[in-house]
From TrEMBL, chains A, B:
The keyword Protease applies. This is Dipeptidase. It holds the Pfam family Peptidase_M20. The keyword Protease applies. GO terms for molecular function: metal ion binding; peptidase activity. Residues 198-347 form the Peptidase M20 dimerisation domain. It comes from Hymenobacter aquaticus. Keywords: Hydrolase, Metal-binding, Protease. GO terms for biological process: proteolysis. It comes from the Bacteria. The lineage of its organism: Bacteria, Pseudomonadati, Bacteroidota, Cytophagia, Cytophagales.
Amino acid sequence: MASYLESNQERFLSELLDWLRIPSVSADPKFHGDVLRAAEYLKTRLEEVGVENVELCPTAGNPIVYGEKIVDPSLPTVLVYGHYDVQPADPYELWTSPPFEPVIKDGKIYARGACDDKGQVYMHVKAFEVLMQEGGVPCNIKIMIEGEEEVGSNNLGIFVRENKEKLKADVILISDTGILANDTPSIEVGLRGLSYHEVEVTGPNRDLHSGLYGGAVANPINILCQMIASLHDENNHITIPGFYDNVDELSAEERAEMAKAPHSDEEFKQSIGLTDIHGEKGYSTLERTSIRPTLDVNGIWGGYTGEGAKTVIASKAYAKISMRLVPHQTSDEITELFQKHFESIAPASVTVVVKPHHGGEPVVTPTDSVAYKAAADAMETTFGKRPIPTRGGGSIPIVAMFKTELGLDSVLLGFGLDSDAIHSPNEHYGVFNFLKGIETIPHFYRNYAAAMKA
Amino acid sequence: MASYLESNQERFLSELLDWLRIPSVSADPKFHGDVLRAAEYLKTRLEEVGVENVELCPTAGNPIVYGEKIVDPSLPTVLVYGHYDVQPADPYELWTSPPFEPVIKDGKIYARGACDDKGQVYMHVKAFEVLMQEGGVPCNIKIMIEGEEEVGSNNLGIFVRENKEKLKADVILISDTGILANDTPSIEVGLRGLSYHEVEVTGPNRDLHSGLYGGAVANPINILCQMIASLHDENNHITIPGFYDNVDELSAEERAEMAKAPHSDEEFKQSIGLTDIHGEKGYSTLERTSIRPTLDVNGIWGGYTGEGAKTVIASKAYAKISMRLVPHQTSDEITELFQKHFESIAPASVTVVVKPHHGGEPVVTPTDSVAYKAAADAMETTFGKRPIPTRGGGSIPIVAMFKTELGLDSVLLGFGLDSDAIHSPNEHYGVFNFLKGIETIPHFYRNYAAAMKA
């Protein structure tokens, strides 16, 4: 006989697609109404499956969707976290189908937010439905889905601090990460932090003709390029003084253990069309994306960028520059070091403004906890293989915040793939992964409730 | 009694403003219809003042407006050159009044093209009218106004090669340059050449999440910045091998002569809001903008440039890079050197495409010719001061082309000011300068015709 999940999977997918049609882009004010519609949609779906006391909790920004099912105060409580906002979708012209008109192609759901994080959040909604249909939830469940993760979760921090009693739980469950491959389950146990800045370099007070002025004024684009270039040395070490001071250096044993994870530089290159491997000297590709901090320019602009040739010297040039942090760097420390250093390397012929955006702290989560084991056992049941603990490259700043504010560890039970192109054109999420998540999550609750009782 | 010019100056200005309302931007295909309208407008105005055989000569691009007044084949012939196309006007938001809704404020005409070059071309139309009203033109005049100067004049070169007989003349007269100040007339006798490129750097084959991939892939923006930064050394010399090989080095005497031109670094800084002087070590500001070649980034773009923070590693980064050339560099030589060098400095982890745009040759025009003296005498009459010969920083590539194809020298009788903000937001042209041009040009024709007869 088909399981409830098997019998209802078409409907589950169809509901997700409806949600993905709402462009809940938090970074751009013009989508504000859509962000609210996406929150309302989620509230309705949660109520339908039996989550109680569902509300849109107002914040200074986008509302947080909160609901709960308290079956017995003596049972353990799991707090599920996720986000319903999505990254901006531009450049739109690089999408093969429009980002907010989801389609399923070759077993994958294509849409902005398909994986990050609406698709993964919706697994939780439907896993809850499955549990309710198959006899009820085995522990207390609280669900908190925010709408500002892609812009720094500032209001979530305030909400959590002000609602510690309401959010009381034993562990936090988050699906916003990935697995190594569909036949190689894994659970992330380390995440990099983030320090993000926008910089502005001003030369002359207006755009100038490069023929009349070229050679005798500081061109802010050339200067910005020089400043950015100087942030790495010839070995791709970051040159900001003090940047590595607090970096947790892994032992040879730990690095040897990491090196056992399946990885091929050749396949890595092919998967994203690289002509060569690149990165900090002395570290492997896996180490470069997990245990080492990095600095990347995420955007740059200035001068004439239209068709044809314009011989202008721009007044201003801009860049967005971010650093991924590792334990035990802190976002505040690195933000201050960056700002000070970047201002210090500006020549006298330009003025520089550094504007920090949001940051996030690096974290390592325990692998010997009841919750981690419950998650690993759940994956072993549904994938038929024990998951590998991995240290990921991305940042989920709220994991560190939950630890500080609520004293709770998080389990990162995510089902995405590196190849899902999150934050990129053509973001997608495997139908396999979506359904596997819905299948796995109930096992986690049952394993966790049983182990906590024991 | 008021002169014809004095009696008609309001109408002359009003006609120019009508022409400036037509956004004849040649770099952007969406203005193609306007470019044609601007050519038609000019044709009608030329016919009205008595220019004969006026036609729109078709080319593979925008038409060339040609007309003539042959009064006597035994008299000398002056070929007037100018352009009716204008630079793109963006960024529009930096204009205090819309670029194609001209206004006169504080004695200045504000509009894209007010000075470069519609305003200066229109002086010739009205100078012709003045001559006709005051007894006729004293020599043969041919007028050739093109519509692709701001995108490289490619079709003008073909037109000139194919119409050598039609364009036969004794000298070329161009008003597309400036004077030092309204009380310090000057005539440009040297112009820098141009080599202009668009470069594209590709890292991964799609945009990536900087958390998952950051540190292990070549970020094309960081790499582009490094490549651009390496094009200058610490003394702001250009590092392209062979770049200076053919540069005409001026003697100590010539440099001492140049240094006599009125200039204050302090005023220069204040005029464009610079915090410090900048440029190639060992040269003065005036030398940096005239006798020395330069390299400037005119535009750069890549990654996320919208509001807020997006943690992306872009697949591609772009820049527009141009070099101003001096005698005896050639555009072809420098274009090849740049392309070869820029490709050679790309690391193996990225691919680079260099696409040359148009170029132009540096020129020095003679100061001992009949035509130069006729122009200098004309200015002395109308300004009450002998003009200073100067070497300018801009490029008028067609001056070198005219010399090669037609064997003719050009006289650069321009009336703009450095502060006119050509190629920038809020381009403007002084009403004083516009009228002074119309007053001066007839003197040039009379002086030239008289001297050639003698």
